[in-house]
From TrEMBL:
<feature type="transmembrane region" description="Helical">
    <location>
        <begin position="71"/>
        <end position="90"/>
    </location>
</feature>
<feature type="transmembrane region" description="Helical">
    <location>
        <begin position="368"/>
        <end position="388"/>
    </location>
</feature>
<dbReference type="GO" id="GO:0031090">
    <property type="term" value="C:organelle membrane"/>
</dbReference>
<dbReference type="Pfam" id="PF01490">
    <property type="entry name" value="Aa_trans"/>
</dbReference>
<keyword id="KW-0472">Membrane</keyword>
<protein>
    <recommendedName>
        <fullName>Amino acid transporter transmembrane domain-containing protein</fullName>
    </recommendedName>
</protein>
<feature type="domain" description="Amino acid transporter transmembrane">
    <location>
        <begin position="43"/>
        <end position="447"/>
    </location>
</feature>
<feature type="transmembrane region" description="Helical">
    <location>
        <begin position="169"/>
        <end position="190"/>
    </location>
</feature>
<feature type="transmembrane region" description="Helical">
    <location>
        <begin position="394"/>
        <end position="416"/>
    </location>
</feature>
<dbReference type="GO" id="GO:0015179">
    <property type="term" value="F:L-amino acid transmembrane transporter activity"/>
</dbReference>
<feature type="region of interest" description="Disordered">
    <location>
        <begin position="1"/>
        <end position="27"/>
    </location>
</feature>
<feature type="transmembrane region" description="Helical">
    <location>
        <begin position="283"/>
        <end position="302"/>
    </location>
</feature>
<feature type="transmembrane region" description="Helical">
    <location>
        <begin position="243"/>
        <end position="262"/>
    </location>
</feature>
<feature type="transmembrane region" description="Helical">
    <location>
        <begin position="428"/>
        <end position="447"/>
    </location>
</feature>
<keyword id="KW-0813">Transport</keyword>
<keyword id="KW-0029">Amino-acid transport</keyword>
<feature type="transmembrane region" description="Helical">
    <location>
        <begin position="202"/>
        <end position="223"/>
    </location>
</feature>
Length: 462
């Protein structure tokens, strides 16, 4: 694997004349102007980078966060959201520091630098599992919102079903097929991540619309006294209730996973000394949105909060124009997820290409390979969204496996490996803490899920 030559401070200030360093390293090589025809690209702006990273973070995970409040209570739940934001910032800092010293331009490059080819392949596989799972969740939510969903025997009507009544054309499969062909496929054809900065800005705006309306509805219901006092702490009565707290950990982990796009955004920044500020600004924005969504979502629906809180917005809110607000909230967030899709799809395609064709020319310059990989991945995600029943199931699987490796275990392992001797004692202590916390909490979460499933299957026979 080749490493690039050190950049001077002057060169770091501009990406205009930057050359390709290692075009086959996953998670975005440096600029591919000569191969892909992007000669006029002078570098991404700070604002565009913040929008792209924030869009990577605020995806479908936000919809499952109010349900975590139902398990943890408001106090512990909000504390965990803030704690995970700080832990995510620390893990990204570890990656960036290692990539600077090792002169690598991608997460995969850092893993290869620390652990060789096996490390890079392990990361690629984890990104594939995580991103496929996340994109399946996006499609599931879009299907729930537009076509409806059934939970615990209760059917929650979708927007189209509410407007036009049940019909063959507004069923889940048809709606997802049209969305895939009309929205996902065209956006997935863009070959540079900075090309998505305007759709990213719009997606953040749509998420804010969703949040503002939900906050407004909650405040109105608080004023008229129709909201009960929420649970502040978890309801712990026995060992089983303790185990039931752990399945929320993978959901919280998944909510902040953006590591696979940090280097992609860094590589396109006009001034790459701004990447730390980009990361901190994005995490501050997203954690604020997460806390407010969790707080007001749980206040609004209480113990009736569903795994996908958007599905709650088909009930009578008890306020004037409640049905209109329901539709605006659901449509705005469905639109947000449609625009987030290509941001997460971008590194997924790049990693699959690096795994299958490690010696081929850059993906952006091979239209046939680009098209076939894109078509195959979108088809797989479409099928998964039609067969996986719940976003909670998908989040628990990806969060307890691939996401925790990408977000915490791999960055901590790189720091402990410390090939370049840059890790301080506190860095290594934090790394050990990350690995122990990740492994123990997710092992217990998997055990708790398995225990609950076995108990559920055994109960009808008793």
């Amino acid at each position: 694997m080749t490493n690039g030559s050190p950049e001077t401070a002057k060169e770091k200030k501009s990406r205009k004349n930057k050359q390709v360093v290692d075009e086959r390293v996953p998670l975005l090589p440096k600029q591919q102007e000569d191969d892909a025809g992007f000669d006029e690209f002078d570098g991404a702006s700070f604002t565009g980078a913040v929008f792209n990273l924030s869009t990577t973070i605020v995806g479908a995970g936000i919809m499952a966060l109010p349900a975590t409040m139902k398990v943890l209570g408001l106090v512990l739940g909000i504390a965990m959201i803030i704690f995970m934001a700080f832990l995510t910032e620390a893990s990204i800092e570890m990656l960036l520091r290692s990539s600077r010293v090792g002169k690598t331009t991608s997460y995969g490059g850092v893993m290869a630098d620390a652990f060789g080819k096996c490390g890079r392949i392990a990361l690629q596989i984890c990104v594939l599992v995580n991103n496929v799972g996340v994109l399946i969740v996006y499609m599931i939510i879009i299907g729930d919102v537009l076509s409806g969903t059934t939970s615990s025997g209760i059917h929650h009507a979708g927007v189209f079903e509410g407007w036009f009544g049940p019909s063959w054309w507004n069923g889940r499969t048809i709606v997802l097929l049209v969305t895939t062909l009309a929205v996902f496929a065209p956006l997935a054809c863009l070959k540079r991540i900075d090309s998505l900065k305007f759709t990213s800005a719009l997606s953040v705006a749509l998420a804010v619309v969703f949040l503002v309306i939900m906050v407004g509805i909650t405040v109105v219901k608080l004023i008229n006294g129709s909201i009960l006092m929420p649970r502040l702490l978890p309801d712990v009565t026995d060992f089983t209730s303790v185990l039931n707290l752990f399945p929320v950990v993978p959901v919280l982990v998944t909510a902040y996973i953006c590591h696979y796009n940090v280097h992609s955004i860094d590589n396109e920044l006009e001034d790459n000394t701004q990447i730390k500020a980009v990361v901190r600004s994005s995490l501050a924005l997203c954690s604020t949105v997460y806390v407010m969504t969790s707080l007001f979502g749980f206040l609004l629906f209480g113990d009736a909060t569903l795994d996908d809180v958007l599905a709650n917005f088909d009930t009578n809110l008890g306020i004037p124009y409640g049905s209109l607000f329901n539709d605006v909230v659901r449509v705005s967030y469905a639109g947000h997820l449609m625009l987030v899709f290509p941001i997460v799809f971008y590194p997924l395609r790049l990693n699959l290409d690096g795994l299958l064709f490690p010696s081929a020319r850059p993906l952006a310059s091979d239209n046939l390979r680009f098209t076939l990989i894109s078509f195959g991945l979108i088809s797989l995600i479409f099928l998964g969204a039609n067969f996986i029943p719940s976003i909670w199931d998908a989040f628990q699987f990806t969060g307890a496996t691939a996401a925790v490796c990408i977000g915490f275990i791999f960055p901590a392992a790189i720091t402990l490996r410390d090939r370049h001797g840059i890790a301080a004692k506190k860095d290594k202590i934090l790394s050990v803490f990350m690995i122990v916390l990740a492994v123990v909490s997710n092992a217990v979460a998997i055990y708790s899920d398995a225990y609950g499933l076995l108990k559920k299957n055994a109960s009808p026979r008793e």
